[in-house]
Amino acid sequence: ILMTQSPATLSVSPGERATLSCRASQSVRSYLAWYQQRPGQAPRLLIHGATTRATGIPVRFNGGGSGTEFTLTISSLQSEDFGVYYCLQYYDWPLITFGGGTKVEIK
Amino acid sequence: QVQLVESGGGVVQPGRSLTVSCVGSGFIFSNYGMHWVRQAPGKGLEWVAIISYDGSNKSYGDSVKGRFTISRDNSENTLYLQMNTLRPEDTALYYCAKDSDSSGWPPPWVDYWGQGILVTVSS
To answer: Do the chains contact at A101 and B45, CB–CB below 8 Å?
Structure first.
């Protein structure tokens, strides 16, 4: 299953809303996760089941969608939110696949 | 808390072999499937391999199939990745990562990651 993320880069001012997209080449139902990777750090789980926030994740992070179209919305960007975001499909577990990533940078 | 600590990376010549390891703590290691995921410099995440909780089932990504072998020692809480016939394109940060659950359905997601270990393939 091929996962495509858009845009590749998103320039956003602090306090603004950011919307990231992830598309699957076939339905993955709701078996989709989102990860944040800050520079020099390992990925961190944000969302699983397309919409469920992981433990300790702030409410400004919201996941949506099902089937082939998914979104991650960050309602009011904070300085610590800048980095690269990846989606992951695990419907086809154990053959999981990641999207190419969206870099969220400071405008 | 869950901790995954990789070790064993370094510089290796093309065509040679290297084994990297990952020690898990803070959870019952023998209950969970484990993955290796890699990230080439400046690139995205690429899934490499998975091993089931008991080591009986393994799957690999197409780019490493036939060259890499994943294994585990549950008595030592350790995951391994043996990498043979290494190529320059295998240069990457290698992360070990844990499945969220031990059952295959509903499918588990990856919930925790190590900090990664760098493998550089160069002459």
So the answer is: yes
